[in-house]
């Protein structure tokens, strides 16, 4: 009965997990008096998180094009996160220590990746097992044409990239990779297959320990 209940819970989590399982979180470090990195490029659905790294100053962070309400990063409010859903350029600055394009400022570019049609991969071509997994996940890629310049990424539920594997391009029926996960916390993860930096297939995998 316990095994059945666990399997049912895992199935529900895999079905109900939304797009956030695939979003990435990009960290911008805030110091006296700079945003690092100053320019970042993300994709729709990704999260940008400003994170205070120490110092003595407060940094009211304003959008040059009114994309968000000004927020302040300091010791009392060390982080702030924004999800970017629309493509475009989003310049910003610290109202105390900069101005648009001057001093303490930054630029976020939200770019829409151009689909790579020849590399489209059927979901059945990318398998993760066992699922749920404990210790090791085996990944099977059975589309040889989509293995050149390819990689596999594992992303946790917060959008943080926790593993990257390079996929061999040798011509054979399928490629099988072993992904150690014993050191990762239990939970739901997104697994992505990329070719030339473009996501061509996705799977979800549940880790249990």
Show the helix and strand layout:
Blueprint: H1 2-16, E1 25-31, E2 34-36, E3 39-42, E4 46-52, E5 59-63, E6 71-73, E7 79-84, E8 88-99, E9 102-110, E10 126-129, E11 136-141, E12 150-155, E13 161-167, E14 175-180, E15 187-195, E16 198-207
Parallel strand pairs: 1-4, 3-9
Antiparallel strand pairs: 1-2, 4-7, 5-6, 5-8, 8-9, 10-11, 11-14, 12-13, 12-15, 15-16
Identify the notable features of this structure and list them briefly.
209 residues, mainly beta, Immunoglobulin-like, 2 domains, 4-stranded mixed β-sheet, 7% helix, 50% strand, Cupredoxin
Give a quick rundown of the structure:
The chain is mainly beta and 209 residues long.
What does this structure look like?
By secondary structure, the protein is mainly beta. It has two domains: 25-110, Cupredoxins -  blue copper proteins (Immunoglobulin-like, Sandwich); 123-207, Immunoglobulin-like. It is built from one helix and 16 strands. It has one helix spanning 2-16, and strands at residues 25-31, 34-36, 39-42, 46-52, 59-63, 71-73, 79-84, 88-99, 102-110, 126-129, 136-141, 150-155, 161-167, 175-180, 187-195, 198-207. It has a five-stranded mixed sheet with strand order 3-9-8-5-6, with no helix packed on it. The two termini are 19 Å apart. This is T9SS type A sorting domain-containing protein. Residues 1-23 form the signal peptide. It comes from Hymenobacter jejuensis. Residues 129-197 form the Secretion system C-terminal sorting domain.
